[in-house]
Amino acid sequence: MYNFDENKIKFIENTTKKNLKQRIINDVQFKLKEFDENLKLKRERLNQQMLNEEMLLKNEIENNQKTYYEKLFEIKEFQAFKILTEQEAIRKLLVKEKMEQLQRDNCEENRIIEHKILSKEIAKCNKELMKRNLKKWQINKELQENFDKLFNEFKDDRKHVKFNDYDREKLLYKLY
Asked: What keywords are assigned to this protein (predicted)?
């Protein structure tokens, strides 16, 4: 009843395979692009956070310089009023400086710990990026294998035509 030409049927099958393959390629490329954008945003946030930490450290250094001048003023006050003897004043100042030094050391240790945490986060992002690149490579490898299978089927269907590597590369270029 129906008399279809075999060439038309094969043409329809081939175009359906190509359309399906193109849709798969487009979906994979879209997901990879989306993943890339998310990683870039995360990396930018981490970089911004590190810049903020650097600014905080600079501000802290400036504040420490201000406290130095305030201490000098306090020393002059001690000398001007002569409320305490010089030894008592020096002892109190040393105790105060040691306490402040301990506080600064704690702040610096906290900053170092935070910097290490940020470094670990960046390392995690880099690891995720490497995993993504590996997945991308695997997907490309699968696509290449699928293309090779389709090309071999195509060649088998057309045994009367000779194909070489140049034809294969040309067809591959047209698909991508």
From this structure: Coiled coil
